[in-house]
Amino acid sequence: MSGRMIVSVSGIRDTTRDVVDGFAKEMDARGVPLSLFVAPRLSDHYRLVRDPATQEWLLERREGGDAIVLHGYDQAATKRRRAEFSSLPEHEATLRLLAADRVLEDTGLRTRLFAPPRWTASKGAVAALPRIGFRLLADISGIHDLERGTVVRSRVYGIGQGAKAEPWWCRAMVIGAGRVARRGELLRLAISAKHLAAPGPRQAMLDAVDLALHHGAEPTVYRWRRRSESREAA
Question: In whole angstroms, what is the distance from residue 68 CA to residue 35 CA?
Fold first, then answer.
């Protein structure tokens, strides 16, 4: 029995767009669409609204079959050493989600999919998401359909975003990814854009993808299917 595979990339911005584009082209050659994790603000005063080249690139990738996934507002730690949405109460999470949603709407990149920084969302953040219109949450434990209240359990095999990038971890990730694909289960691979610039992590991700494809994994993206329609939100 063949399973599915989702490959995601985070940290996409002006300074990482070229390296992500190179990786995306390698995925295109393999028939693997990407889930592109987007945040309106990042470090060093980066603002997506001031980066039309990245906006255009993201729009083109979505038109080609990739998915846009909101990945926080500014990814700033709300408490010491805690990821942005990991400990927020519902009210504060709502404000951040609304602000991020407005930016993506203004740039034509609005999505109903959400993945919190470092894959961790507080109970308050989870409660806020459907109120604002989000339909899918991808966290550390699996993929949650926020309308139906269901979840597909699946761990993340990642590099960056809280995961390690050392050679031993990269090797372990490839082995683990192959094991999941061989069992016909859902495989979620994730890498941050800055690690794509490093030969070791980049090659490890390529190896994991190739091994999963070898075991028959079907490439897909994070998506949410409507109850009464065949259209999907991505």
Answer: 6
The CATH code that applies to domain 4-233 is 3.20.20.370
166: DSSP letter: S
d(CA 2, CA 183): 8
Q: Output the CA torsion sign for 85, 95, 76, 113.
A: positive
Instruction: Domain ranges for the chain, please list them.
Output: 4-233
User: Contact, 2 vs 216, CB < 8 A?
Assistant: yes
- 2-31 burial, b at 16+ Cβ within 10 Å, e below that, comes to ebbbbbbbbbbbbbbbebbeebbeebeeee
Global confidence as pTM:
0.93
For the chain, first and last CA: distance in Å? 26
Q: How many angstroms separate the CA atoms of 83 and 28, rounded?
A: 31
Question: What's the pLDDT score for residue 160?
Answer: 79
What is the β-pairing status of strands 41-42 and 46-47? antiparallel
Tell me the pLDDT tens digit for each residue of 104-154: 999 999 999 999 999 999 999 999 999 999 999 999 999 999 999 999 999
How far apart (Å, rounded) are the C-alpha atoms in residues 120 and 214? 31
